Amino acid sequence: MSADRREFLTLLGSSAVAACVGRSSAAALDSASQADSVGPLRTPAALGAGELAAMPAEQQVWPGSTTRLLTFGGSYPGPTLRAQAGDRFAVRVVNRLAEPTNVHWHGLVAPAQMDGHPADALSPGAVRDYTFPIAQRAGTYWYHPHVDGTTGRQVYSGMAGFFLVADAEESRLGLPAGEREVALLLQDRRSYRDRSFTYAPGPMDVLSGYLGDAALVNGVPGAALPLAAALYRFRFLNGSNARIFRLGFSDGRVLHVIGTDGGLLDRPMAAASVDLGPGERLDALIDLSDVVPGRSVWLRSLAFAGGGMGMGMGGLATQGAPMELLRLDVDRLGPLTPPLPARLVTLERLDPSRAVATRRFVFEMTMPPFAGGARINGRSFSPSRVDERVRLGDLEVWEFVNASNESHPVHVHAASFQVISRSRGGLGPQDLGWKDTVLTWPGETVRVAIRFSHYPGLYVLHCHNLEHEDAGMMLNVEVE
Ligand code: C2O
Ligand code: CU
Ligand code: CU
Fold first, then answer.
1. Which residues are CB-contacts of 446 (< 8 A; sequence separation ≥ 6)?
2. Which among 70, 131, 228, 418 counts the fewest CB atoms within 10 Å?
3. For the whole model, what pTM was predicted?
């Protein structure tokens, strides 16, 4: 407890200093240079097992400068973890940072003591062996730190990576693989002139989230990817603190959505655009076979309204501002695109009419959002208070009620769920299949069917807007 308190005080001190620095350099956002700074997309190294060190590093983010980062494994994004369903996953995490951290395996169901609960931190110098059986279907999962109060800053500083799971059912489909399977970590950052990842959320940033003016894909602003005129599999991860992306292409071509947070859908769904909130993933086939070599297509985030106040620093650092994400440079012919599979995998359907209980979670914020300003059911997170008790194996309906003017991407640990309904309209392709994070728009109620079927223990439910989460929009859920 006293260690926690010390850390909290240190944090207060450093963020007060950072807030001053942040304010003076606030006018120095350099968005104008974004469009020209096209650099090659980075592909993180793969890691199956071994050591994953949390460590500071310096890396070129913008051309001609280096940025001080916090990383996993010395690189941003961190190494891509790969595992096969049914395998036992094992990595040794060493904390080489000067502050506590931990790792949460987002979307994977891990025993509670391996899950990276916000109160379960590794002190500087500590070593932890994280090991658990991969009980999940093939899918696009990810990992990031999850210490109460510092998740937003540590993720923003560079700590995030993919965790890709494969299985036999997926392999049989013969989806594009190798260089035609591309994992894209989508994030936004503030392009301060000094090229630092200064993280200094003021009250308005806590309200709307720490929005940046620059879109980074795999840590690269204005990234470009050379590819063939062929069919590709893109796995998107929105690893932003607060930014919602409305994914689409500059020439209006569609995304053939084949999977969401928790794996593949039963069949592909074509969509001209897909909304992806912080924490959500999307698996899609992109057919570029008609693009003439020499031409480029931009993956972009389309403009939208109604995502929240999201004023942030104005300009591009606004929720819903259009952003160019990745330039796809088609530079060669490729194999002809085979017909897309009509069926993908068999999905178990949770039947909400069989639910044994309904729980309601009301997400609220007050202005200004100081202590107690970000709440679920009237409560801010307390690490030792158990807020909900759920029985292992029970099917329940959970209602996420957004009673605020901001968006809340709601995330649940230790279980996947299926979206039943949205009060604002129909479900989007990103709502289908197995989910662990679902975006709720201002004023919207989203209902999901959920069942915890793996482990008892203490887990959390929270908003994945990391500023909201760190401000307390999180509850403890005890599975028993
Ligand atoms: Cu991605 Cu509880 O987090
Ligand atoms: Cu999670
Ligand atoms: Cu929120």
1. 399, 400, 402, 410, 419, 421, 422, 423, 438, 439, 440
2. 131
3. 0.93
Residue 395 carries which side chain, given as an amino acid letter?
L
Distance from residue 137's CA to the centre of ligand 3 (Å): 28
CB of 411 closer than 6 A to ligand 1? yes
The sign of the torsion formed by the CA atoms of 155, 467, 186, 41 equals negative
Contact 78, 143 (CB under 8 A): yes
| Pairwise CA distance, residues 452 & 413, whole Å | 9
- Report which ligand 1 atom has the smallest distance to the Cα of 437: 1
CA distance linking residue 346 with residue 340, whole number of Å? 17
* Cα dihedral: 199, 318, 261, 168 (round 10): -90
Q: Which ligand is nearest to the CA of 206?
A: 3
Strands (E), 213-254: 214-217, 220-221, 223-229, 231-238, 245-249
Atom of ligand 1 nearest to the CA of 413: 2
Q: What are phi and psi of 97, to 5 degrees?
A: -90, 165
Nearest ligand to residue 439 Cα: 3
Q: What angle do CA 296, 302, 307 make, to 5 degrees?
A: 160
- pLDDT score of 9 more than 60: no
| CB 146 less than 6 A from any atom of ligand 1 | yes
For tokens 């658990």, name the residue: 132
410 alpha carbon, closest ligand: 3
Residues 287-334 pLDDT 10s: 999 999 999 999 999 999 988 876 556 678 899 999 999 999 999 999
Give, using CA atoms, the residue closest to atom 1 of ligand 1: 106
